[in-house]
Amino acid sequence: MNLMCPARILLLPGDIQDATIGERVAQVYAGPFEAAAGSRLAEVLGVKLTVVPDLTQRPDAELQAIADLHRGETVVVLGLDLGLKLPATVEHTGDGWSRVPTDNELTLAAYEQAAAKFRDSIPKQPSPALAHLMDVLAERAGAGARVLELGSGTGAGALELERRGLRVRRTDAAMSFVEMMHADGHPADRLDALTDDFGGPYAAVYASAVFLHFDRAQLAGVLKKAVRAAPILAFTTREGSGEEWSNRFLDLPRQFVLWPEEPLRALLTETGWRVDLLTREDSTRGTWLQVLAVRG
Question: Which SUPFAM superfamilies match (predicted)?
């Protein structure tokens, strides 16, 4: 009996430009029309490429054959979407291939279900370090500057930024928070920082307690989009190492990715940013980093 875990099949668009995957990949597979993109990706990842001529004609059979070869491993497949929004990780349920929720999607689901409880759990006023970060951002951006806020949540941060003379585009990936901000009389857009375009240009991008829900590869992608959208980035995240899941406050699981200072600085540099301000502040929820970076 084979007790190995099933393969993780990561479906990516055939025109993929960013090879940041975030996990070890055993092999890249591609349909004939995606062979060139597959070759570039395989070279970057340092793995073998296999072109599958019948990938789109016999997707079930070809994916199952790939899965059987790579039990317990992660493989990338280009040129097959199965009607799903890409990127997507899929598994066979017995009735067909279905999308496996990512850690970020599970976290987002917690916010969708418990937006009101979250509002009750957060401080009513910004901490001294967060208030200082907002002050510096407002000074650097200038009065009346347009700021994109990622993960606006309840909208409390946007109100603080507006009190400092900034114009804020409120956004969140959770529709429950977008509706909450609408109910409070504020325009807000549903925007998933991982998958949606940021628009712009803006004077700055602001994200408080948002980046801690992204793994390294996801955060790298968000930072690259932010550097194209604005010359200034201000954000807060938890300091530490590793990842953790917590049911605290919402009674629903959320993933938290903790960052030591030096790897965070290195990632910012890699994605086109230069750290201009970094402070830390202890709280009952751990040590927080407040960062202001400028386009490098």
Answer: S-adenosyl-L-methionine-dependent methyltransferases
Greater model confidence, 15 or 52: 52
Look-up of token digits 């072109």: 51
Residue for token digits 């201000």? 234
Over residues 39-55, the pLDDT tens digits come to 999 999 999 999 999 99
Residues 6+ apart with CB under 8 A from 233: 204, 205, 206, 207, 223, 226, 227, 273, 291, 292, 293, 294
For residues 60 and 111, is the Cβ–Cβ distance under 8 A?
Answer: no
3 within domain boundaries: no
Chain position carrying tokens 């390294």: 216
Strand partners, 259: 239
- Strands of 74-78's sheet, edge to edge? 48-51, 27-30, 74-78, 8-12, 88-92, 97-99
Question: Quick one: 84 and 159 in the same domain?
Answer: no
- Per the domain annotation, does 1 fall within a domain? no
Whether residue 169 sits in one domain with residue 58: no
- pTM reported for the whole predicted model: 0.80
| Cα–Cα distance, 222 to 12 (Å, whole number) | 17
**280 Ramachandran zone, left/alpha/beta (phi>0; psi -120 to 50):** beta
Tell me how far apart the alpha carbons of residues 20 and 229 are, in angstroms, rounded to a whole number: 20
